[in-house]
Amino acid sequence: MTVSGQTLTRIQSLARLYQTGYRSNTVDATIKKLISMERSRLQAELDELVGHLHGFEQQYHLSSEEFHHRFQAGEMGDDADMFEWDAFYLMWLSAREQLDALQAERI
Q1: Span 62-88, pLDDT tens digits
Q2: What is the pTM of this model?
Q3: CA distance 78 to 56
Q4: Residue ranges per structural domain of the chain
Q5: How far apart are CA 102 and CA 97, in angstroms?
Q6: Which end of the chain is more exposed for a tag (fewer CB within 10 A), N or C?
């Protein structure tokens, strides 16, 4: 089993334990802290990616979202810049989705 698989199994074990009525201030505080740390890491990653995206947007006078749609439609050519810009945009979308998932967990 992979490390991420082991982590998921452990989280599921805790979830099952909590579903039985178990409570622990230590576990609660630890999970809250882990989520907070992950939010901070993702926000820093997003900030860095936004910097990369902004550079491309300034250079090509086009929003990253519009670029992505046009690139996927084959309208932007195949220069290395285009592939790099699209990769940064996809990374930004993924990080944004992950952060949104963690934000939804706020209590």
Answers
A1: 999 999 999 999 999 999 999 999 999
A2: 0.84
A3: 15
A4: 3-104
A5: 9
A6: C
